[in-house]
Specification:
Blueprint lengths: L6 H18 L23 H15 L1 H10 L8 H8 L10 H12 L3 H4 E4 L5 E2 L3 E8 L4 E7 L3 H21 L2
Antiparallel strand pairs: 1-3, 2-3, 3-4
Length: 177
């Protein structure tokens, strides 16, 4: 059963798929059709590159679960054309970092200790930022160099909600296919 508290997310997904997915994605029910010959030029509607960029941008706006979905799609040339692969690959390593103040608050909250007490050095600029978290270089008080991976703030309830939405939609599709 679809839940009313998720109406905004259902709408976001519907807009996403109707604006982008219906025109360019290759979704085949027959497994033998899933193998795509790269030399086969399937006729894509004009503007595929712009739609691919828009799709990747929209996934980024929709948050970490959808960024992960885009990362997965970037590995599926049997489903999305090369223009989408190229746009979605950017989601692998071009995610904005979150502020150091959030990093410090998360470490303090989860470990019950301030960053300055744990580390003699903590690099404020992350080494990498991804959909679920980011990584900082640091030096422990005893001199050992470490990396610290910190989850994005508020990520758990967002992912829980999105996975519930996916499950509900999958159940509805299963009932009607």
């Amino acid at each position: 059963m679809l839940k009313s508290e998720h109406l905004a997310r259902y709408r976001d997904l519907a807009v996403l798929l109707t604006r982008y997915g219906m025109k360019d994605f290759r979704v085949n029910v027959d497994p033998k059709d899933a193998l795509v010959n790269p030399e086969d030029e399937t006729s894509l509607e004009p503007g595929v590159r712009e739609r691919a960029e828009g799709f990747a941008t929209k996934l980024k706006e929709m948050g970490p679960t959808f960024i992960k979905f885009g990362q997965l799609l970037s590995t599926r040339p049997d489903i999305v054309p090369p223009e989408y692969i190229e746009a979605l690959e950017k989601l692998q390593d071009q995610v904005e970092p979150f502020p150091l103040s959030d990093v410090e608050a998360i470490i303090d909250s989860e470990l019950n200790v301030r960053v300055s007490k744990l580390f003699s050095e903590f690099e404020p600029k992350p080494v990498a930022a991804a959909s679920l978290g980011q990584v900082h270089r640091a030096t422990l008080q005893d001199g050992r160099e470490v990396v610290v991976k910190v989850q994005r703030p508020g990520i758990r309830p967002i992912i829980r909600q999105d996975l519930e939405v996916f499950r509900q939609i999958a159940e509805k599709l299963d009932q009607h296919t």
